[in-house]
Amino acid sequence: MKQLPLTVRLAAGLAVTAVEQVRKLPMQLAGLPVTVISEAMRLTMRVQQEVTELAIKGDEVLAMLKQPEPEPEWATFDEDEPETPPVRADDPWAEEEQALAAEPPAVLPNYDELSLAQLRARLRTLTAEDLDQLLAHERTHAARPEFTGMLTRRIANLKNR
Hints:
The protein is mostly helical. The protein has helices at residues 6-65, 94-102, 116-122, 128-140, 145-160. It is rod-shaped, with a radius of gyration of 38 Å. The protein starts with 5 loop residues before the first helix and ends with a helix. Residues 70-89 are annotated as: Disordered.
């Protein structure tokens, strides 16, 4: 038997493949939404990755051109705060100092009940000595960083005048 021409053989193979694909189509249609969604998500993630890489490169270039900002005077860090000495157990005066410190400061007897905003409103009327007394009281009691920071900065402002 003589072999058929290549084009006829290709057409027959293509027809059989088309029939096979049509038979698989119902099963493929069920998974099609998942496939489309996963491809869309993959593409979205890739675009986000590219955008992020470009932004990082841009940041690196701009960082070389930009002068660093000086540290603002209001910015404080834990390293800037003076450390309070620990109370030694063998110190005979430690108990008496703690008892004296338990009393509210005479400057503002209701100091412990004040909010940060309420204290800020009263700061301008206080002297540096009054503020030192409040700061010592704060450090031995609640030691709230926002209160100690505000008092420390106010004392520094008064001393710099």
